[in-house]
Amino acid sequence: MKSDSSIAIYFLLLLVPLFWGGAFVAAEHVITEIPPITAAAFRFGTAGIILLLIVLWQKRIDMKAIRKQWLPILLMALTGIFGYNLFFFIGLDITSSINGSLIVATTPVLITLGAVMFLGEKGNKRLGLGLALSLLGVIVVISKGSIQTLLQLQFNTGDILFLCALVCWVAHGLLGKVAMRDVSPIVTTALTTMLGGFFLGLGSLFESGWNQLPAMSSQAWMEMLFMIVCSSVIGFLLWNYGIKQIGASKASIYMNLVPICTALIAVFLYGSTFTYIQLSGMVMVLLGVYLVTLHPYFKDKRLKRKIAKLS
After folding, report:
1. pTM
2. CA distances from 197 to 73, 84, 110, 160 (A)
3. Number of domains in the chain
């Protein structure tokens, strides 16, 4: 049974989709002023430096552990930071956002399967039901409940790139579980973010967009600051800590809250519309997340009270 202190991670992980959903909305504007890979390189490179300074200040670097897990850490940077962003932005320029969102929405299912098959995490009916319910809810939100929208989808090269982004993110989650057996979440996050930012920086040289950075508007700079501090530093740190604490399968279901948060932020800050059908999809996602994460905890708490009364 989990202690009250360990259950805090389930609530802290709710900040991750909020910050990452906000990053989608913020990035949509930022990349109108500077090229996407340049924006990603500046975001993750700066976040990596901030995290590294925090680690050095705390004197928490264990070189022996890093040398032991150097390959998973390097692969995390290449997949989750560099590969995911590269494939995502190039794919988004070719295919529709609906296609991409539906492909990425399968992330929790694939991470869970990978965690059960390769990392020894346990699967059960409740986990499967929660995943299915939240995935269905995401599809309802993205398609706005229109079957016609889903039937009219056409797949192209951009969708293949989104599939590559999906593979990269799944690999990043599974590799994180391996790396953090020896390396702390904050050190893992710092190294992968900084290395990923470096590789993105190399990729951004082909865009020739760094000279446009100083000319960004004040709104774009505020959005960039949000993406660096909240979406990258805090978001990735909580994500990696969640994978270490509760496992890749349970942490991954929070990914289905990202499109929900993106839609809500777009509604409240940018005046987008949100229908009752999408609201019902959001409820399905929340219910799925609850079934997988918090329901077992509250069930155990109720059982503990009953035993206490009988004794």
Report:
1. 0.80
2. 14, 12, 26, 24
3. 1
Q: What pLDDT is attached to residue 148?
A: 78
CA–CA gap between residue 105 and residue 137 (Å, rounded): 10
Residue 34 DSSP class: S
Report the distance separating Cα 150 and Cα 157, nearest Å.
18
Report residue 307's pLDDT band, with 50, 70 and 90 as the boundaries.
low
Q: What is the pLDDT of residue 142?
A: 72
- Domain membership of residue 133 (yes or no) is yes
**Domain annotation covers residue 1:** no
271 dihedral zone (left: phi>0; alpha: psi -120 to 50; beta): left
Tokens of 288: 């799925």
Structure tokens given for 304: 């503990």
In a domain, 169, yes or no: yes
Q: What's the CA gap between 212 and 108, in Å, rounded?
A: 37
The C-alpha torsion from 154 through 157 and 160 to 162, rounded to 10°, is -80
Find where tokens 């409940």 sit. Answer: 145
Domain around 229:
8-310
Judge contact between 145 and 275, C-beta under 8 A: yes
